[in-house]
Protein backbone atom coordinates (compact mmCIF):
# COMPACT_ATOMS: atom_id res chain seq x y z
CA UNK A 1 0.00 0.00 0.00
CA UNK A 2 1.32 3.48 -0.84
CA UNK A 3 0.68 5.93 2.02
CA UNK A 4 -3.02 5.34 2.86
CA UNK A 5 -5.28 8.03 4.28
CA UNK A 6 -5.72 7.41 7.99
CA UNK A 7 -8.74 8.20 10.17
CA UNK A 8 -8.06 8.49 13.90
CA UNK A 9 -10.91 8.47 16.44
CA UNK A 10 -10.29 9.03 20.17
CA UNK A 11 -7.81 11.79 20.94
CA UNK A 12 -7.23 11.29 24.67
CA UNK A 13 -4.02 10.75 26.64
CA UNK A 14 -2.92 8.05 24.17
CA UNK A 15 -4.60 9.09 20.92
CA UNK A 16 -3.17 12.62 20.84
CA UNK A 17 0.54 11.66 20.79
CA UNK A 18 -0.13 8.60 18.57
CA UNK A 19 -1.93 10.69 15.95
CA UNK A 20 0.78 13.36 16.05
CA UNK A 21 3.46 10.75 15.24
CA UNK A 22 1.44 9.67 12.18
CA UNK A 23 1.09 13.31 11.01
CA UNK A 24 4.84 13.86 11.50
CA UNK A 25 5.54 10.72 9.45
CA UNK A 26 3.70 12.31 6.50
CA UNK A 27 0.34 10.53 6.68
CA UNK A 28 -2.82 12.42 5.77
CA UNK A 29 -5.07 12.20 8.87
CA UNK A 30 -8.76 12.86 9.45
CA UNK A 31 -9.59 12.95 13.17
CA UNK A 32 -12.58 12.99 15.51
CA UNK A 33 -13.26 12.99 19.24
CA UNK A 34 -16.41 13.86 21.16
CA UNK A 35 -14.27 16.51 22.94
CA UNK A 36 -13.98 19.42 20.49
CA UNK A 37 -10.80 20.89 22.04
CA UNK A 38 -8.88 17.66 21.39
CA UNK A 39 -9.93 17.74 17.72
CA UNK A 40 -8.78 21.38 17.49
CA UNK A 41 -5.38 20.48 18.97
CA UNK A 42 -4.71 17.71 16.44
CA UNK A 43 -6.11 19.78 13.55
CA UNK A 44 -3.63 22.51 14.52
CA UNK A 45 -0.88 19.85 14.25
CA UNK A 46 -1.87 19.18 10.63
CA UNK A 47 -4.91 16.85 10.60
CA UNK A 48 -8.30 17.44 8.99
CA UNK A 49 -11.09 17.79 11.58
CA UNK A 50 -14.24 15.72 11.13
CA UNK A 51 -17.50 16.13 13.00
CA UNK A 52 -18.60 12.46 13.11
CA UNK A 53 -17.07 8.98 13.02
CA UNK A 54 -18.94 8.43 9.73
CA UNK A 55 -17.14 11.42 8.16
CA UNK A 56 -13.78 10.02 9.33
CA UNK A 57 -14.59 6.67 7.70
CA UNK A 58 -15.73 8.27 4.43
CA UNK A 59 -12.38 10.06 4.11
CA UNK A 60 -10.02 7.25 5.14
CA UNK A 61 -8.51 3.96 3.93
CA UNK A 62 -7.42 2.86 7.42
CA UNK A 63 -9.54 3.79 10.44
CA UNK A 64 -8.05 3.58 13.95
CA UNK A 65 -10.01 3.89 17.20
CA UNK A 66 -8.42 4.66 20.60
CA UNK A 67 -11.40 5.12 22.93
CA UNK A 68 -11.90 3.98 26.55
CA UNK A 69 -14.05 0.82 26.61
CA UNK A 70 -16.07 -1.81 24.69
CA UNK A 71 -19.33 0.24 24.62
CA UNK A 72 -17.37 3.25 23.27
CA UNK A 73 -15.97 1.13 20.42
CA UNK A 74 -19.46 -0.20 19.65
CA UNK A 75 -20.85 3.37 19.68
CA UNK A 76 -18.06 4.69 17.43
CA UNK A 77 -18.51 1.84 14.94
CA UNK A 78 -22.23 1.03 14.98
CA UNK A 79 -23.82 4.10 16.65
CA UNK A 80 -25.62 6.86 14.78
CA UNK A 81 -23.22 8.48 12.28
CA UNK A 82 -20.77 5.72 13.13
CA UNK A 83 -17.86 4.22 11.19
CA UNK A 84 -20.06 1.46 9.73
CA UNK A 85 -22.20 4.06 7.93
CA UNK A 86 -19.23 5.63 6.12
CA UNK A 87 -16.65 2.86 5.66
CA UNK A 88 -15.86 1.57 2.17
CA UNK A 89 -15.47 -2.10 1.26
CA UNK A 90 -11.74 -2.93 1.10
CA UNK A 91 -10.85 -0.48 3.89
CA UNK A 92 -9.08 -1.42 7.11
CA UNK A 93 -10.33 -1.00 10.68
CA UNK A 94 -7.92 -1.26 13.63
CA UNK A 95 -9.12 -0.88 17.20
CA UNK A 96 -6.19 -0.02 19.49
CA UNK A 97 -8.32 0.51 22.64
CA UNK A 98 -8.29 -2.10 25.40
CA UNK A 99 -11.67 -3.84 25.23
CA UNK A 100 -13.21 -7.26 25.85
CA UNK A 101 -11.81 -9.89 23.43
CA UNK A 102 -15.38 -11.08 22.72
CA UNK A 103 -16.37 -7.56 21.59
CA UNK A 104 -13.24 -7.22 19.40
CA UNK A 105 -14.28 -10.44 17.64
CA UNK A 106 -17.96 -9.47 17.21
CA UNK A 107 -17.11 -5.96 15.89
CA UNK A 108 -14.57 -7.45 13.46
CA UNK A 109 -16.99 -10.11 12.22
CA UNK A 110 -19.78 -7.56 11.64
CA UNK A 111 -17.46 -5.21 9.71
CA UNK A 112 -16.10 -8.13 7.67
CA UNK A 113 -19.66 -8.52 6.30
CA UNK A 114 -19.15 -5.03 4.76
CA UNK A 115 -15.85 -6.14 3.18
CA UNK A 116 -13.70 -4.45 5.85
CA UNK A 117 -10.37 -5.99 6.95
CA UNK A 118 -10.03 -5.84 10.74
CA UNK A 119 -7.30 -6.12 13.36
CA UNK A 120 -7.31 -5.67 17.11
CA UNK A 121 -4.13 -3.88 18.25
CA UNK A 122 -4.22 -2.83 21.91
CA UNK A 123 -1.06 -1.31 23.31
CA UNK A 124 1.17 -1.29 26.36
CA UNK A 125 3.73 1.33 27.34
CA UNK A 126 1.47 4.02 28.73
CA UNK A 127 1.45 7.73 28.01
CA UNK A 128 5.27 7.77 27.99
CA UNK A 129 5.37 4.96 25.40
CA UNK A 130 2.83 6.84 23.27
CA UNK A 131 4.84 10.07 23.45
CA UNK A 132 8.13 8.30 22.62
CA UNK A 133 6.60 6.16 19.84
CA UNK A 134 7.70 3.14 21.87
CA UNK A 135 4.39 1.30 22.35
CA UNK A 136 4.23 -2.46 22.47
CA UNK A 137 1.34 -3.29 20.08
CA UNK A 138 -0.37 -6.69 20.47
CA UNK A 139 -2.29 -7.68 17.36
CA UNK A 140 -4.94 -10.17 16.41
CA UNK A 141 -6.10 -10.89 12.87
CA UNK A 142 -5.00 -12.26 9.50
CA UNK A 143 -1.26 -12.21 8.72
CA UNK A 144 -1.61 -10.44 5.33
CA UNK A 145 -3.76 -7.70 6.90
CA UNK A 146 -1.20 -7.30 9.71
CA UNK A 147 1.65 -7.00 7.20
CA UNK A 148 -0.23 -4.30 5.25
CA UNK A 149 -0.85 -2.22 8.40
CA UNK A 150 2.57 -2.84 10.01
CA UNK A 151 4.25 0.28 8.50
CA UNK A 152 1.64 2.36 10.37
CA UNK A 153 2.24 0.46 13.63
CA UNK A 154 6.01 0.98 13.16
CA UNK A 155 5.49 4.76 13.49
CA UNK A 156 3.96 4.30 16.96
CA UNK A 157 5.99 1.41 18.38
CA UNK A 158 6.66 -2.28 17.87
CA UNK A 159 3.84 -4.58 16.73
CA UNK A 160 3.62 -8.36 17.12
CA UNK A 161 0.91 -10.55 15.57
CA UNK A 162 -0.29 -12.80 18.43
CA UNK A 163 -2.88 -14.89 16.55
CA UNK A 164 -6.38 -14.69 15.14
CA UNK A 165 -8.80 -11.76 15.68
CA UNK A 166 -9.18 -11.07 19.43
CA UNK A 167 -5.73 -12.47 20.34
CA UNK A 168 -4.29 -8.99 20.80
CA UNK A 169 -6.94 -8.29 23.45
CA UNK A 170 -6.23 -11.62 25.17
CA UNK A 171 -2.50 -10.77 25.40
CA UNK A 172 -3.37 -7.25 26.62
CA UNK A 173 -5.53 -8.82 29.37
CA UNK A 174 -2.49 -10.92 30.39
CA UNK A 175 -0.42 -7.72 30.41
CA UNK A 176 -2.91 -5.97 32.68
CA UNK A 177 -2.90 -8.92 35.10
CA UNK A 178 0.85 -8.50 35.56
CA UNK A 179 0.76 -4.70 35.82
CA UNK A 180 -2.09 -4.64 38.38
CA UNK A 181 -0.57 -7.39 40.54
CA UNK A 182 2.85 -5.67 40.39
CA UNK A 183 1.41 -2.29 41.44
CA UNK A 184 -0.28 -3.96 44.40
CA UNK A 185 2.98 -5.72 45.32
CA UNK A 186 5.08 -2.56 45.08
CA UNK A 187 2.47 -0.69 47.16
CA UNK A 188 2.57 -3.34 49.88
CA UNK A 189 6.40 -3.42 49.87
CA UNK A 190 6.70 0.37 50.18
CA UNK A 191 4.07 0.53 52.95
CA UNK A 192 5.65 -2.35 54.89
CA UNK A 193 9.13 -0.83 54.64
CA UNK A 194 7.96 2.67 55.56
CA UNK A 195 5.92 1.53 58.58
CA UNK A 196 8.96 -0.46 59.76
CA UNK A 197 11.02 2.72 59.60
CA UNK A 198 12.94 2.53 56.29
CA UNK A 199 13.02 5.42 53.81
CA UNK A 200 10.83 4.22 50.88
CA UNK A 201 13.10 5.96 48.37
CA UNK A 202 15.92 3.66 49.52
CA UNK A 203 13.61 0.69 48.95
CA UNK A 204 12.94 1.83 45.37
CA UNK A 205 16.65 2.38 44.75
CA UNK A 206 17.84 -0.99 46.07
CA UNK A 207 15.02 -3.16 44.71
CA UNK A 208 15.37 -1.62 41.23
CA UNK A 209 18.72 -3.43 40.88
CA UNK A 210 17.80 -6.92 42.10
CA UNK A 211 15.46 -9.75 41.14
CA UNK A 212 12.46 -7.59 42.16
CA UNK A 213 13.27 -4.97 39.51
CA UNK A 214 10.28 -4.22 37.30
CA UNK A 215 8.69 -1.61 35.07
CA UNK A 216 6.48 -0.29 37.88
CA UNK A 217 9.44 0.37 40.21
CA UNK A 218 11.40 1.85 37.31
CA UNK A 219 8.67 4.11 35.88
CA UNK A 220 6.51 4.80 38.91
CA UNK A 221 8.51 3.96 42.09
CA UNK A 222 9.93 7.41 42.76
CA UNK A 223 6.69 9.13 41.73
CA UNK A 224 4.72 6.91 44.13
CA UNK A 225 7.00 7.87 47.02
CA UNK A 226 6.62 11.53 46.01
CA UNK A 227 2.81 11.18 45.99
CA UNK A 228 2.65 12.17 42.30
CA UNK A 229 -0.42 10.37 40.96
CA UNK A 230 -1.15 12.50 37.91
CA UNK A 231 -2.33 10.09 35.15
CA UNK A 232 -0.75 8.35 33.18
CA UNK A 233 -3.12 5.45 33.20
CA UNK A 234 -6.15 6.11 35.36
CA UNK A 235 -7.37 3.72 38.10
CA UNK A 236 -10.79 3.97 36.39
CA UNK A 237 -9.35 2.46 33.17
CA UNK A 238 -7.37 -0.26 34.95
CA UNK A 239 -10.52 -1.21 36.88
CA UNK A 240 -12.25 -1.46 33.49
CA UNK A 241 -9.48 -3.82 32.34
CA UNK A 242 -9.77 -5.93 35.51
CA UNK A 243 -13.48 -6.37 34.79
CA UNK A 244 -12.53 -7.59 31.29
CA UNK A 245 -9.99 -9.98 32.86
CA UNK A 246 -12.55 -11.38 35.35
CA UNK A 247 -15.01 -11.97 32.50
CA UNK A 248 -12.33 -13.58 30.30
CA UNK A 249 -11.30 -15.82 33.21
CA UNK A 250 -14.95 -16.87 33.59
CA UNK A 251 -15.38 -17.39 29.82
CA UNK A 252 -12.37 -19.73 29.65
CA UNK A 253 -12.76 -21.33 33.11
CA UNK A 254 -9.47 -20.01 34.51
CA UNK A 255 -9.32 -19.23 38.27
CA UNK A 256 -7.51 -15.95 38.93
CA UNK A 257 -7.14 -15.90 42.73
CA UNK A 258 -4.36 -13.31 42.96
CA UNK A 259 -5.85 -11.01 40.33
CA UNK A 260 -9.21 -11.37 42.11
CA UNK A 261 -7.75 -9.89 45.31
CA UNK A 262 -6.16 -7.04 43.39
CA UNK A 263 -9.49 -6.49 41.57
CA UNK A 264 -11.09 -5.88 45.00
CA UNK A 265 -8.37 -3.33 45.85
CA UNK A 266 -9.05 -1.44 42.60
CA UNK A 267 -12.80 -1.65 43.36
CA UNK A 268 -12.07 -0.11 46.77
CA UNK A 269 -10.19 2.74 45.08
CA UNK A 270 -13.19 3.33 42.78
CA UNK A 271 -15.68 3.31 45.68
CA UNK A 272 -13.45 5.81 47.47
CA UNK A 273 -13.58 8.15 44.47
CA UNK A 274 -9.91 7.67 43.48
CA UNK A 275 -10.65 6.63 39.88
CA UNK A 276 -8.97 9.65 38.31
CA UNK A 277 -5.60 8.97 40.02
CA UNK A 278 -2.84 7.20 38.11
CA UNK A 279 -3.08 3.43 38.73
CA UNK A 280 0.03 3.65 40.92
CA UNK A 281 -2.29 5.62 43.27
CA UNK A 282 -3.40 2.17 44.50
CA UNK A 283 -0.64 2.84 47.05
CA UNK A 284 -3.05 5.20 48.87
CA UNK A 285 -5.53 2.33 49.41
CA UNK A 286 -2.83 0.07 50.92
CA UNK A 287 -1.53 2.96 53.05
CA UNK A 288 -5.01 3.55 54.48
CA UNK A 289 -5.33 -0.15 55.33
CA UNK A 290 -1.99 0.03 57.19
CA UNK A 291 -2.81 3.35 58.85
CA UNK A 292 0.37 5.01 57.61
CA UNK A 293 1.45 7.27 54.78
CA UNK A 294 4.44 5.71 53.01
CA UNK A 295 4.67 8.75 50.73
CA UNK A 296 7.21 11.29 51.89
CA UNK A 297 7.14 13.94 49.20
CA UNK A 298 3.52 15.15 48.98
P1 LIG B 1 -8.74 8.82 27.49
O1 LIG B 1 -9.98 8.75 28.30
O2 LIG B 1 -7.69 9.83 27.85
O3 LIG B 1 -9.10 9.05 25.92
C1 LIG B 1 -10.18 8.44 25.25
C2 LIG B 1 -10.75 9.44 24.26
O4 LIG B 1 -11.81 8.81 23.52
C3 LIG B 1 -11.36 10.67 24.95
O5 LIG B 1 -10.78 11.84 24.39
C4 LIG B 1 -12.87 10.55 24.63
O6 LIG B 1 -13.48 11.81 24.48
C5 LIG B 1 -12.83 9.77 23.32
N1 LIG B 1 -14.07 9.08 22.99
C6 LIG B 1 -14.83 8.28 23.78
N2 LIG B 1 -15.88 7.78 23.09
C7 LIG B 1 -15.79 8.29 21.84
C8 LIG B 1 -16.58 8.15 20.66
N3 LIG B 1 -17.68 7.37 20.64
N4 LIG B 1 -16.21 8.82 19.55
C9 LIG B 1 -15.10 9.61 19.56
N5 LIG B 1 -14.30 9.77 20.64
C10 LIG B 1 -14.64 9.12 21.77
O7 LIG B 1 -8.13 7.35 27.50
P2 LIG B 1 -6.63 6.91 27.14
O8 LIG B 1 -5.82 6.91 28.38
O9 LIG B 1 -6.15 7.65 25.93
O10 LIG B 1 -6.89 5.36 26.77
C11 LIG B 1 -7.49 4.96 25.54
C12 LIG B 1 -7.48 3.45 25.47
O11 LIG B 1 -6.12 2.99 25.52
C13 LIG B 1 -8.22 2.76 26.62
O12 LIG B 1 -8.86 1.60 26.17
C14 LIG B 1 -7.10 2.43 27.58
O13 LIG B 1 -7.43 1.31 28.41
C15 LIG B 1 -5.97 2.11 26.62
N6 LIG B 1 -4.61 2.32 27.15
C16 LIG B 1 -4.30 3.44 27.85
C17 LIG B 1 -3.01 3.60 28.35
C18 LIG B 1 -2.60 4.81 29.18
O14 LIG B 1 -1.52 4.78 29.78
N7 LIG B 1 -3.39 5.88 29.21
C19 LIG B 1 -2.04 2.61 28.12
C20 LIG B 1 -2.38 1.51 27.36
C21 LIG B 1 -3.67 1.36 26.88
Could you explain how this protein is built, in words?
Strand 5, helix 6 and strand 6 form a beta-alpha-beta unit. The protein has two domains: about 160 residues, Rossmann fold (3-Layer(aba) Sandwich), CATH 3.40.50; about 120 residues, N-(1-d-carboxylethyl)-l-norvaline Dehydrogenase, domain 2. The longest helix has 29 residues. About 45% of the residues are buried. The protein is elongated. The strands form two sheets. Strands 3-2-1-4-5-6 form a six-stranded parallel sheet, sandwiched between helices. It has a three-stranded mixed sheet with strand order 7-8-9. The mean pLDDT is about 95. Helices cover about 55% and strands about 10% of the residues. It is built from 14 helices and nine strands. The termini are far apart. The protein is an alpha/beta fold. It binds nicotinamide-adenine-dinucleotide. Nicotinamide-adenine-dinucleotide (NAD) binds next to helix 4, strand 7 and helix 7. Nicotinamide-adenine-dinucleotide binds next to helix 4, strand 7 and helix 7.
Amino acid sequence: MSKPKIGFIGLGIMGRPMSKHLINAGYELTVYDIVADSVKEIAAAGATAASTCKEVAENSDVIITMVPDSPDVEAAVFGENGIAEGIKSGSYYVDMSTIAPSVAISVGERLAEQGVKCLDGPVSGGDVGAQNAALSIMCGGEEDVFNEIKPIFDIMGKAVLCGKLGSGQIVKACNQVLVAVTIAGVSEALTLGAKAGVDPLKIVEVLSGGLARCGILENRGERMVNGDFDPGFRIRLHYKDLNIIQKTGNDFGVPLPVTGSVFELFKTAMVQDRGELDHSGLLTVIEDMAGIQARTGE
